[in-house]
Automatic annotation (TrEMBL):
Primary residence: mitochondrion
The name this protein goes by in its record: glutaryl-CoA dehydrogenase (ETF)
Domain Acyl-CoA dehydrogenase/oxidase N-terminal, residue spans: 17-128
Family: Belongs to the acyl-CoA dehydrogenase family.
Organism, as annotated: Rhizodiscina lignyota
Pathway the protein contributes to: Amino-acid metabolism; lysine degradation; Amino-acid metabolism; tryptophan metabolism
EC number: 1.3.8.6
Gene Ontology cellular component annotations, sorted alphabetically: mitochondrial inner membrane; mitochondrial matrix
One Gene Ontology molecular-function label: flavin adenine dinucleotide binding
Acyl-CoA oxidase/dehydrogenase middle domain span: 132-229
Keyword check for Plastid: no
UniProt subcellular location: Mitochondrion matrix
Length: 396
């Protein structure tokens, strides 16, 4: 007889390969056993422990889809299952991992030289070299094509000097390797530069943290301030120019967020269900007995199930080379929006206790607002989809 499991309504796990199930199990066990016990203190104190990247590296969770260079070379669906497991605990932990894997290792693997891959990827896969991705600037977030950071050819012929500022950059205060996107002063073409912190002369690179965030507090965020910072020619990504460079890495990171936010929503659903079954109001009934509470649970379970199925299909298409960026915009937008709406509705199930961080729901809600904003705010993804539907761009 067919059964219904509200934790996996469409039996999505039957679609995953043995290897994907094993990767998922590793990531779920690590996340629940090693991350969950740390998250409250990390969020309260706005403290990211960079050993977490080393721990993830030991388990093969970093740059997991990359083939060779010390990486696991697993499928896109397996990588999605990793982000789902980590974000089930906290979006900030997933963020630090996504930036390392999709936004720093990914572009080196896709657009770097063999020498760059050999130099950086094995250390990054182990979490010994921490990366970040500098695209957003104080005056240019949704429209990175207007960036002001500039790379000038050095008079001594030894590469470039970078000047400008990037803001809201995950991992920047702790990063050893900063991938900075800048416009070449002579042509205006956008190029990616691998800035090695330890090689920057004093005063040319600063990465102040942005403190007192009200979401993503378990990850570290900062600025990148560059003042004639020298970068050798061999640290430029040679194989790509223009916005295609940063955006192609964003496809992978946005795909990871689509899975990750479903993990966060599933955690909210599990916690709210548990709470509703235990909390009694009016004649000793559990509040789970009341229709309005059940609707909130049903909505969230449905959104999580649909979100996982759509992400699964896009993951398979990525590996077959058949995924258009608009597909990724669609799942990124939908899953972030539905996770935020669902988490916010489930927050109400906890009554006054939702105001205590011990119940974890408020932390997910404040994190999910950020996931809806970074990597293309949801309205920007609406416009990407609107352009694909109508052929008319509505950005400006
Ligand atoms: P547009 O004309 O659309 O495109 C310019 C060039 O880029 C190519 N392209 C893509 N290539 C691959 N994948 C994609 N998804 C691509 N999107 C665009 C495009 O084909 C074109 O190539 P070419 O060769 O013809 O020049 O450029 P536009 O300036 O009109 O772009 C508009 C818009 C809104 C789509 C774009 O600017 C956008 O996506 N804005 C959102 C910005 C964003 O997502 N920022 C993310 C910053 S990183 C971050 O948030 C990390 S948080 C990480 C964490 O902590 O988890
Ligand atoms: P704006 O671009 O100023 O947008 C503000 C509002 O206006 C949004 O609602 C937007 O949708 C809307 N809007 C803008 N243009 C249009 C339009 N044409 N039509 C309709 N509506 C429009 N960036 C990085 O490069 N690397 C990182 O690692 C990184 N990590 C981040 C971590 C955190 C915690 C946060 C909060 C942000 C991070 N970001 C990072 C930056 C993030 O990508 C940007 O915040 C995001 O792209 C939006 O840019 P903005 O904040 O400048 O908002």
């Amino acid at each position: 007889k067919a059964t219904f499991d509200w934790r996996d309504p469409f039996n999505a796990s039957s679609l995953f390969t043995e290897e994907e199930l094993a990767v998922s199990e590793t990531a779920e066990s690590y996340s629940q056993e090693r991350l969950q016990p740390r998250v409250l203190d990390a969020f309260r104190n706005e403290d990211y422990d960079k050993n977490i990247l080393k721990e993830m590296g030991e388990l093969g969770l970093l740059g997991a889809t990359i083939k060779g260079h010390g990486c696991a070379g697993v499928s896109s669906v397996a990588a999605g299952l990793i982000t789902r497991a980590v974000e089930r605990v906290d979006s900030g932990y997933r963020s630090a991992m996504s930036v390392q894997s999709s936004l720093c290792m990914g572009p080196i693997d896709e657009w770097g030289t063999e020498e760059q891959k050999d130099r950086f990827l094995p250390g990054m896969a182990k979490g010994q070299i921490i990366g970040c991705f500098g695209l957003t600037e104080p005056n240019h977030g949704s429209d990175p094509g207007s960036m002001e950071t500039v790379a000038k050819k050095r008079a001594d012929g030894k590469g470039y000097s970078l000047s400008g500022s990037k803001t809201w950059i995950t991992n920047s205060p702790i990063a050893d390797l900063l991938l900075v996107w800048a416009k070449l002063a002579d042509t205006g073409k956008i190029k990616g530069f691998l800035v090695e912190r330890e090689k920057c002369p004093p005063g040319t690179l600063e990465t102040p943290p942005i403190k007192n965030k009200n979401g993503l507090r378990a990850s570290i965020t900062g600025m990148i301030l560059l003042d004639d910072c020298p970068v050798p020619e061999e640290n430029m990504l040679p194989e790509v120019e223009g916005l295609k460079g940063p955006f192609s890495c964003l496809n992978s990171a946005r795909f990871g967020i689509a899975w990750g936010t479903m993990g966060a929503l599933e955690d909210c659903l599990a916690r709210a269900t548990d709470y509703a079954l235990g909390r009694k109001q009016f004649k000793g009934n559990p509040i789970a007995k009341y229709q309005l509470v059940q609707k909130k649970l049903a909505d969230a379970a449905t959104d999580a199930a649909y979100g996982i199925m759509a992400s699964y299909q896009v993951g398979r298409l990525i590996d077959e080379g058949k995924a258009a960026p608009e597909m990724i915009s669609m799942i990124k937008r939908q899953n972030c929006d539905r996770a935020l709406i669902g988490a916010r509705a489930l927050q109400e199930v906890f009554g006054g206790n939702a105001a205590s961080d011990e119940y974890h729901i408020g932390r997910h809600v404040s994190n999910l607002f950020v996931t809806q904003t970074y990597e293309g705010q949801s309205d920007i993804h609406s416009l990407i989809l609107g352009r694909a539907i109508t052929g008319l761009q509505a950005f400006c």
